[in-house]
Write a structure and sequence with these properties.
The structure holds 2 protein chains of 2 kinds. Helices cover about 75% and strands about 0% of the residues of chain A. By secondary structure, chain A is mainly alpha-helical. In chain A, helix 1 runs antiparallel to helix 9 and helix 2 runs antiparallel to helix 3. Chain A is globular and about 55 Å long. Chain B is an all-alpha fold. The longest helix of chain B is centred in the middle third of the chain and has 20 residues. Chain B is globular. Classes of the chains: A mainly alpha, B mainly alpha. Chains A and B meet through helix 1 and helix 9 of A and loops of B.
Amino acid sequence: MKTVTKVAWLFVGLGLVGAALSLLVPVPASWEGSTSDFRGPFANSILYATLYVGAAVLFLMGLNAYKAKLRIAYSTIAASIVMAALGVGHFTVLNLFGLLDTAWVLSGGIMLPFLLSGGLAYIGMRSMARQVGVQSVLARFWVVLPLVAAGMFLSNFLPHTSFDSKELYFDLTNMIITFDIILYLICAVLALRARQHMGAHYAPAMAWLTVGFFGTTLLTLTTLMSALLLGPDFGNYVQEAVVLLGGILYLKAGEAFALTKEL
Amino acid sequence: MSFLQSFFGTTKKTAEMTTAIDLVTSTAGLASNPRAIDGTLDKVRAITARLKPGDALSATDEAGLFAAYLDIEQYLMTNDPIRTFSKQELRARINPDLLAKLNTYEKQ
């Protein structure tokens, strides 16, 4: 078995061990739901966070064969993946431990990793696509920025369930989720274009990167749909499953990229 | 678990390059921007288009393919936008007989 495959397995193992160990953490007194509603998402958050970090590590492992510009582009994509894990993971943990009333959350800081994740993913993917000669309007800031701004603005008009808390925070959250949906989708399209454009040696890595970005688009889309249908307390098992799937896909994308180092 | 076992680590074992056509097509697949070597690949296509199934390469065709390979190799070692390859790593999978022919052609 190749080293990068062993590393992928190592992170799957670490995630499973971490998820199992999380079952030993006592349910906090502040938790009002069922024990399984606490333990399931908590264990899953440890599992998927480990997978996302593993994916970032694998991306970085493949970099030493490449030139500086590509190293920067892929490091940026790896940072985006870590931010996505941090965003979803820390939201879950804060929610489970009754910390959603803290200054970090109330000031909007909780959404910062999500903003960074979408932004970094686009910057990294755009740079990579341009380096290999992909010609696409989606690699132009003057096309993408108005598109993202329009999408964020229009997200305010999406119909949603009624709820008691302030609509402003809800709308801001949905705008940031929409920001991520659009940018991840653009990244997926750029990765697909790179897959079609680059030589056969890079095809599996680009195909899995495309799948990873489509997976993350699906995750953020599910999050938006959950928010619109369920209101601000939108955590659910579908979302948990999709975020885990995203982690597995990114881990595979990381492994596929690290393998391009070898001829 | 068997799904995950086949999911991770499924990489095709890279085959040894035994013919001049293998040599050029496999090496061209390493280009991150194949458009940059399109001119060279056009020459390769012109040679392969003339071949009928089962036809052996003529000495002239083989020389044309070696010339194309050397162009692509040079591009990968100096101009590929994302990676710099070394001559040794590019030639590591070439069958010894084919490599000997390539070396002879290169010295001419």
